């Protein structure tokens, strides 16, 4: 278990294009070395029709899987059982499912398991990484983790992560290390970006991701807060990344008002995000109001590329 504990001491995120299946298999190998013989490990992977790659920290993803497997092992150590780790290819996303045949998570604590410092284990047991940290890692990869409350026996956690193919035109391989954000293909910047989204958790995830790429980030949870940042901020705002569907004022309405000078004289490019399946706004009509259009769920690399492309263009 000491080998597994070492994963939780890593502080600096090292991002690269990683193969999801390979990363999961490596995690299982680590778990297998300490799991009791009374627990059977079952692995399910999609057909190898294509590589499932994402831009992320291999060790952090392994931290998540090892933590979930450790929790399952702890739940089944008295009676034994089966630990299943499954990877599903969803096209734009992938799912990693960790399920066990233990006693399951009691209904009365299911709503608390992702809270900081919450644990049901005695002091000194486990990896020392709570599910709140696990959730934080998944969120930092623009993903989500859920506990399935409807399983008949045991517990089942589902991790959904956006897939990202490395840019073939740059000759980047999935296994190539890109821990340095100075790499040309991953160039971020030091500009200031205003992120507007009424989903508080998603705003934090996007902001944290942009900060990894080196940007300074201001956060707002509706268009009116965004206007306040524009008018009150002592810093120059170089770009606005706004959700479209927000109560009170949509992102598109905000962008039009900004272009029309309703909030003052600001020449700030706007990237519009949406989670709804709707037709992309006619960017030729919205020229100057909207510079890019992104559909959720967001991919970290594609997000940075859209931002970099917008900032590197001629001024609005």
Could you describe the 3D structure shown?
With 316 residues, the protein is α/β, with parallel strands linked by helices. The chain has two domains: 2-162, Heat Shock Protein 90 (2-Layer Sandwich); 187-312, 3-Layer(aba) Sandwich (Rossmann fold). It is built from eight helices and twelve strands. The chain has a five-stranded mixed sheet with strand order 2-4-5-7-6, with helices on one face. The chain has a five-stranded parallel sheet with strand order 9-8-10-11-12, sandwiched between helices. α7 links the parallel β10 and β11. The longest helix has 19 residues, at 58-76. The radius of gyration is 22 Å and the shape is elongated. The termini are far apart.
Helix content: 25-40%
User: In CATH, what is the homologous superfamily of the largest domain?
Assistant: Histidine kinase-like ATPase, C-terminal domain
Number of domains: 2
Low-confidence stretches: 1-12, 122-128, 168-185
Beta-strand portion reads 15-25%
CATH class category label of the largest domain: Alpha Beta
Pattern of helices and strands? HEHEEHEEHEEEHEHEHEEH
Structural class: alpha/beta
Summarize the structure.
With 316 residues, the chain is α/β, with parallel strands linked by helices. The chain has helices at residues 2-5, 20-32, 58-76, 131-140, 200-212, 223-232, 251-259, 300-312; strands at residues 16-19, 39-44, 53-56, 81-89, 93-100, 144-147, 156-162, 192-196, 216-220, 239-243, 270-274, 292-295. The strands form three sheets. A five-stranded mixed β-sheet has the order 2-4-5-7-6, with helices on one face. A five-stranded parallel β-sheet has the order 9-8-10-11-12, sandwiched between helices.
């Amino acid at each position: 278990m000491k080998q597994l504990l070492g994963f939780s001491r890593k502080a600096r995120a090292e991002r690269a294009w990683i193969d999801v299946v390979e990363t999961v298999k490596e995690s299982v190998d680590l778990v297998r070395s300490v799991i009791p013989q009374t627990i059977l490990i079952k692995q399910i992977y999609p057909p190898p029709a294509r590589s499932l790659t994402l831009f992320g920290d291999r060790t952090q993803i392994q931290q998540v899987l090892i933590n979930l497997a450790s929790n399952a092992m702890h739940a089944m150590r008295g009676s034994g059982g089966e630990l299943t780790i499954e990877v599903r290819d969803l096209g734009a996303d992938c799912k990693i499912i960790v399920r066990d045949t233990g006693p399951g998570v009691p209904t009365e604590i299911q709503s608390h398991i992702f809270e900081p410092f919450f644990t049901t284990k005695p002091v000194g047991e486990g990896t020392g990484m709570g599910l709140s940290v696990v959730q934080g890692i998944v969120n930092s990869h623009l993903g989500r983790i859920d506990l399935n409350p409807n399983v008949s026996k045991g517990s089942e956690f589902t991790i959904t992560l956006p897939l990202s193919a490395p840019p073939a035109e740059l000759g980047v391989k999935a296994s190539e290390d890109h821990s340095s954000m100075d790499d040309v293909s991953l160039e971020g910047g030091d500009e200031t970006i205003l992120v507007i989204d009424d989903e508080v958790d998603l705003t934090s995830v996007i902001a944290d991701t942009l900060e990894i790429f080196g940007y300074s980030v201001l956060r707002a949870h509706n268009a009116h807060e965004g206007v306040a940042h524009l008018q009150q901020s002592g810093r120059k705002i170089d770009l606005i990344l706004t959700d479209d569907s927000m109560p009170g004022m949509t992102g598109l309405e905000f962008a039009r008002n900004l272009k029309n000078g309703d909030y003052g004289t600001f020449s700030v490019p706007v990237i519009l995000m949406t989670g709804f399946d709707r037709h992309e706004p006619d960017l030729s009509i919205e020229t100057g109001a909207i510079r890019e259009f992104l559909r959720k769920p967001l991919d970290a690399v594609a997000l940075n590329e859209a931002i970099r492309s917008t900032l590197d263009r001629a001024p609005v």
